[in-house]
Amino acid sequence: MAIPKIEGFLQAIREQPENNDIRLILYDLLEDNGLPLLTKFLRGAAALNNLQGDERERQIASLTTLLRENPSWRGDNNINIFILQIDTLQIDRGNNPVINIIVRAEILDQNPILFVDERVGDIRARDLLLLLAPYSSVRVREVDMENIENVLKNSASAGILNLAINEDLGDAEVRILAASPHLAGLTSLNLADNGIGTGGAVALAASPHLTRLTRLDVEFNDIGYVGATALAASPHLAGLTGLYIGHNGIGTVGAAALATSPYLARLTHLALGHNEIGDVGAAALATSPLLARLTHLDVAANGLGAAGVATLAASPYLAQLTSLNLWGNRLSDAGTTTIAASPLLARLTHLDVGGNGIGNTGTTALAASPHLAGLTGLYIGHNLIGTVGAAALATSPYLARLTHLALGYNEIGDAGAAALAASSYLTCLTNLDVESNGIGTEGAVAIAQSSQLSGLTSLNVARNRLNEAGWAALREINNRVSAGGERLEVHYRSDSRRLEEDEPQKVRSWQRRVVDETNKGAPDPTGMFPQI
Length: 532
Prior knowledge:
Layout: H1 6-15, H2 20-32, H3 36-47, H4 53-69, E1 73-74, E2 80-81, E3 89-91, E4 99-108, E5 111-118, H5 126-132, E6 136-140, H6 145-157, E7 162-165, H7 170-178, E8 188-190, H8 198-206, E9 215-217, H9 224-232, E10 242-244, H10 251-259, E11 269-271, H11 278-286, E12 296-298, H12 306-313, E13 323-325, H13 332-340, E14 350-352, H14 360-367, E15 377-379, H15 387-394, E16 404-406, H16 413-421, E17 431-433, H17 441-448, E18 458-460, H18 468-477, E19 489-491, H19 497-502, H20 504-509
Parallel strand pairs: 5-6, 6-7, 7-8, 8-9, 9-10, 10-11, 11-12, 12-13, 13-14, 14-15, 15-16, 16-17, 17-18, 18-19
Antiparallel strand pairs: 1-2, 3-4, 4-5
Helix pairs in contact: 1-2, 2-3, 3-4, 7-8, 8-9, 9-10, 10-11, 11-12, 12-13, 13-14, 14-15, 15-16, 16-17, 17-18
């Protein structure tokens, strides 16, 4: 069923695309027609235009909470919109076939985004793009290159700034894409996982239509060091502030090309994970004055040892970092101690050192570091941390700002869980992951009954050794509402065959999200850390 009067508003937006007052009036119409949550998101996003500093951060936090607490809803006019879950929004225009598109809201780089996933080339859904702009993006899948050109043309006319194509294009079609003048208005282009090789990367680098880009994502391709070098040498990409180039096999040579590029001097976000850059590549990054604006650096799973980490920690050019991802390298206790001792990392708010063979010594060094007192997120799972390390974290006055602590796949046991539960410094925690830590009923009860952890909204206790008393304690706190008004969600998977076989109804009755087995061993399986 069509929303009454919407055509007139859409026409007004076409004629005056910069007039947000029209959109604000239109939001009232949406709310009156069964879309209150979408309307709330759009209004909140629009308000950001007039906010700065702490006020803007609070508004972003409010929008994030809205997304987290409302995973789905149904409108009154056969419109389904799923927040944070991909599903179908259907628009039926008279006798025309139903157009299936997908709307997904999220916070991307501290900005509100609505992704519109087009599954057809003939976009009558461009009206929806007009409606959601300037917060909307287009994500293209399951269409041929001719229809992608139609998508580009209509997106350009709607003023869409963010485009994502997940279509396994390959080099030949990327060359066609790069030549399209309809790319000229884009500020964000996502071509992740498209089978792009060296030729496609070279074509993108040579495109004169990408000069407005501030964000480019080519992760999960195969551009190699030649493709990385071409991108680094492109004057057309000099406006980039975010470059996502992980999983591309660029190696040491590619890392060095990026580090020495005068065209990438505006970068604030650089994602280089899974590229085999090694200690030499890390040194190239660390010694580059051209990367002095970086605030987010991802060098996960790159074969870095203690020496490579030491060069990063000692770099005066990386002193602006607020997020550092070192997951899956070879830090050990020695590299971790080096990080803890660096005053140049004092701006960090998020640190990921998971999967690095870190034991109690390295953990204690992190906990004792005054330079890490600004951390709000610490991921230290998949290591060798025992009770002593957990106790060090729990008794650290420097970790009092933590809201997210991921300790999964260590061996802290009941004593470590009890230390966390009794901590007078971890009272700001909202997300705690202690999956697979040898915790029994005693530790689970300590966490469940902890007044210090009353602010939790997410607790992951999967794959521990709990009996019925432990599960009962967790059932008591599942869905508990915190002082801030947020509901606690307990994530679990029972290791007990008795619970799974004898009491399936009781287990299924919990309102919870089951942690997927496929996440075992994956970087940041809890999703607690922001993608940069």
